[in-house]
Give the backbone structure.
Amino acid sequence: MKKILIVGAGGQIGSELTRYLRNIYGNSNVLATDVRECRDLGEDGPFEVIDALNATQLASAVARNNIDTIFNLVALLSAVGERNPQMAWGVNMGALINSLEVARQHHCALFTPSSIGAFGPTSPKDHTPQDTIMQPTTIYGICKVTGELLGNYYNLKYGVDTRSVRFPGIISNVTLPGGGTTDYAVEIYYEAIKSRKYTCAVPSDVYMDMIYMPDALRACVELMEADPHKLIHRNSFNIASMSFTPEIIADAIRRRIPDFQMDYYIDPVKREIAESWPNSLDDTCAREEWNWKPEWDLERMTDDMLRVIAEKVAAEKE
Ligand code: AKB
C-alpha cells in the first residue's frame, strides 16, 4: 500500500485529491499538508501544517510517516502570477525543488502537475502535439516548462520516479480555483445558479482545453499506477477531454437555464494569456503509454455541475 504525502492539499485539486486517494489507499495512508490549517482535511485522515518552502519541515514529515509518494500541488496560477512574477517563481519553483530534493533523498515517487500554460503563442494552436515548441509568455508557464525539465532531469540523473500531466483548466464544484485564466469556466456555473447572469473576463471566441475534476483525479492515479516500462514520456503528458469557448459553455447552460445571460468585461491580462494558449491538445501519447481516456464531456459535466451547485446553494440558504 502506498504512503502518500500531498503538498498544498488545501487548494482546488488537493482538497478533492486527498479524499479520492484516501478512498483508494486508506485514510491513514494519505497525509494532507498545507501552509494553512485545513480542518476538513483532518477530519478523516492525517493533516499537518507544512510550508512547502521549508525543505526541513517537508523532509521531516516524509521521514516520520514513511512516505513513498509525494503529490506536489503548490501553485500560484497564471493570472495571479502575472501580478507578482517574482513571488510566483519563488513559490512555484521553491515548492517544486524542495519536493524533488526530498523525493531524491527519501526515495519517493513524485507527481507534479504541469499545465496547458506550458505552451505559448509559438506552439501549434490546434491538436498541440506532445513534443513541440514550448515558449510560454507567462511566469506560470515558464515555471511549468522549467518544472517539466527538472522532473526529467531528476529522473535521468537520480532515478527519481517523477511523473506529470499537463492539466487543462479544471472544473469542479467543491473548492473554487483562484487566480487562473480558466477560472471563468467554474464561476459561470455558480453565477448561473445564483443570479442567472455572468460577466466573463475572457473573450467569447477563445478556445481552451478543460477537464472535469473526476477525470483529473483519475488521471493522477492512473499515471502514478502506470507501468514505468511503458512510459516513454514522463514530464509531462498532454491530456485532453473537452475544448470550448465562453460562448459554447454559455450555450450549454442556456439549454438548461433558458434565461441565463452572459456579458463580457474583458481582463486584458487574461485575454493575452488565453490567446497565447492552445485551442486543444493532442493526447495520443497519454492514451498509448498509460491508457488515458476521458469519461466526461461538456454536456454531462454541465448537468452534474448545475445539479451539485444548485444543491449547495439551496443548503446554504437553509
Ligand atoms: C490557469 O488558468 O492558470 C490554470 C491552468 C490552466 O493551469 N487553471
Notes: The first helix runs from residue 12 to 25. The two ends are 42 Å apart (CA to CA). The pocket of 2-amino-3-ketobutyric acid is lined by residues 77-78, 115-117, 140, 167, 169, 177, 180-182 (CB under 6 Å).
